[in-house]
Write a structure and sequence with these properties.
alpha+beta; SH3 type barrels; 18 strands; 60s Ribosomal Protein L30, Chain: A
Length: about 350
């Protein structure tokens, strides 16, 4: 994403979308009520009797909803600016695509939104290829800023001899070949290879590709299945390699929330208690899932979330938006989708 201009006094930011990942960022940044201005195509009638014809024009909409897709972000709302012959207040949808310039006008840009904007403008985050395996199964996934995407599951033949169970050597070759294919296609920054027991050590001995060896971080997991992905991402060796990534910070924030809940520490969760803590100025970090924000928008209850975020920032607290696509976000949704790490305990009436 390229930021063309930014004026926070007027709340106006102009930018150029450069990739499909930028569309995901915009889907997280554009709120109901925001003005979005950009080029679009609309059918118009030259005369009452004539057939509608398509015209390219610049329109500004007051956003009512957004719909994210990998190739286009649809922004829908009522027209507030445009050519004289286009009626104000009529509905329209701007389809935002890569290489398109748009302008977003907000009454207020939150600090977490500016952080996301800066993050998108700085380029891609780390791409992490994950391989979880044992003697007979291998699971492949990729972790990007948007979350975890499952790629493939392959099964190997297991050779049994008396009481011993051994993985055939060609299964490790299959795993290495699959990793090499994804490395060529995605060029990940880090490759995490994890297994229960000693299988990763056996795989490391059989690994022939020197280029892959430089990228691989080995880790341990309790079992080889899809659920092991979230376990592996919490391993110290993986966290050390990926310390700066946003989703890692999100997972750490959720972990701290759950630890404080278990210890009855300085924490609040659930909308009402978090609101009370925000209005008391007690929030150090507000942790909220993007799915809760999406539901609040759909149900026209975003004002409640907005009040909490404003109060948090006014008391110099930090707002952490957590993706519901990884395990941390799912756990946060399990306790209501919102929690707060407090500066001190708050009494509730």
């Amino acid at each position: 994403m390229k930021i063309v201009s930014q004026n926070l006094k007027t709340g106006e930011v102009s930018l150029v979308v450069e990739s499909s990942e930028d569309l995901w960022y915009l889907s997280q940044l554009i709120d109901p009520g925001d003005i979005v201005r950009g080029k679009t195509v609309r059918k118009v009638k030259v005369t009452q009797e004539s057939e509608p014809v398509k015209r390219t024009m610049t329109l500004a909409l007051r956003t009512e909803r957004t719909e994210y897709g990998p190739s286009q972000l649809r922004v829908s709302g009522r027209i507030v600016e445009g050519p004289e012959d286009i009626p104000r207040g009529s509905y329209h949808t701007i389809g935002v695509e890569p290489q398109q310039k748009i302008t977003i006008v907000k009454p207020k840009w939150y600090s977490y939104q500016l952080d996301r904007l800066k993050e998108a403008a700085q380029g891609k985050g780390a791409i992490v290829l994950i391989c979880i395996f044992d003697r007979e199964d291998a699971f492949f996934a990729v972790l990007r800023r948007q979350g975890v995407e499952r790629l493939a599951h392959i099964e190997g033949d297991v050779q049994k001899k008396r009481m011993d169970v051994k993985a055939k050597g060609d299964f490790f070759s299959q795993v290495e070949k699959k990793i090499a294919e994804y490395d060529l296609r995605m060029n990940p920054d880090v490759i995490v290879v994890a297994s229960p027991a000693f299988w990763k050590e056996e795989f490391a001995k059989s690994l022939k590709d020197a280029k892959l060896k430089k990228k691989i971080v080995f880790a341990t997991c309790s079992a080889a299945n899809w659920r092991a992905i979230s376990e592996v991402l919490r391993r110290d060796e993986v966290r050390a390699a990926l310390r700066s990534e946003r989703w890692m910070r999100e997972m750490r924030a959720v972990d701290e929330v759950l630890e404080r809940i278990a210890k009855r520490g300085d924490v609040a969760y659930g909308l009402e208690r978090v609101r009370d803590a925000a209005l008391a100025g007690a929030i150090d970090r507000l942790v909220i899932s993007d799915s809760l924000i999406s539901r609040a928008r759909e149900e026209n209850e975003f004002d409640k979330i907005d009040e909490i975020m404003r109060a948090t920032e006014q008391s110099r607290g930090e707002v952490v938006i957590v993706s519901s696509k990884h395990e941390g976000g799912k756990k946060l949704d399990g306790i209501g989708g919102i929690a707060a790490l407090l500066r001190y305990k708050v009494s509730y009436g």
